[in-house]
Design brief:
Blueprint (H helix, E strand, L loop, with lengths): L7 E2 L4 E2 L2 E7 L9 H17 L3 E7 L3 E7 L6 H19 L1 H4 L14 E5 L4 H9 L7
Antiparallel strand pairs: 1-2, 3-5, 3-6, 4-5
């Protein structure tokens, strides 16, 4: 069996874990221009590196962003999300005064909610079928 170049290794594990994240702006305000999204990607890429994760893909529109993140099993997705949203909100509001006027009262750029979906590997139906087909051996 060949080694997949996308498989990562830890001290005691071999893994390939990806999550699709979607963050929407507070009140769904349409505040992002291309320059905001470009800087947001840079900030989020740096945060991912701090978690030993990789921002594989990033894109967005004027009121939300999509991220595809490859992360190690020692990282809780909720902690990664909190850092991504917190750091990017603080830095974007510091660097772009035009964002502050939309959120002067809330002091937050992102909505409190987010979407996180596991990505990669075989479809669930195939994994379920694989597990069902395992032969249990009596002891």
């Amino acid at each position: 069996m060949g080694i997949d170049e996308n498989v990562r290794t830890g001290r005691h594990c071999v893994f390939r874990m990806h999550v699709h994240l979607v963050f929407v702006t507070k009140y769904r305000h349409k505040v992002f221009a291309d320059r905001h999204l470009t800087r947001c990607e840079e900030i989020m890429r740096a945060v991912c590196e701090d978690f030993e994760a990789e921002l594989v893909e990033f894109n967005g529109e004027n009121n939300h962003v999509h991220l595809l993140v490859n992360f190690p099993p020692k990282v809780a997705v909720s902690k990664l999300v909190n850092s991504l949203k917190g750091v990017s909100s603080r830095r974007l509001r510091q660097e772009f005064p035009d964002l502050v006027r939309h959120y002067w009262r809330a002091q937050r750029l992102w909505s409190g909610s987010y979407f996180a979906g596991s990505v990669g590997g075989a479809p669930l139906s195939i994994v379920k079928q694989y597990v069902e087909q395992q032969n249990r051996r009596p002891l």
